[in-house]
Amino acid sequence: xxxxxxxxxxxxxxxxxxxxxxxxxxxxxxxxxxxxxxxxxxxxxxxxxxxxxxxxxxxxxxxxxxxxxxxxxxxxxxxxxxxxxxxxxxxxxxxxxxxxxxxxxxxxxxxxxxxxxxxxxxxxxxx
Length: 127
Hints:
The protein is mainly beta.
């Protein structure tokens, strides 16, 4: 069921399974989760949907997407705890927004609360 608008959330004390953080690395992005993900889901490049784009600024929020393109990881480095990966990407572009998606489940079989993240990339950090 897709819901729109305001929704009431009730705290349960349980951490939702989702992205915890996305950060730029020298060669790609580090993606962290709130819980471990089975290795077979993380290691397959086809499980990751990554799109880069820029947009034409407008007086309104955002603007039309421009120069949209798709990337696939050329290498995936999985942390021992399976709570983070480094996605190595060959073609990141400065000042582009990256939309990252993976339809993963955690070790308990729970789906991600929100399987999407966005990152505005300006430049790679030093190694």
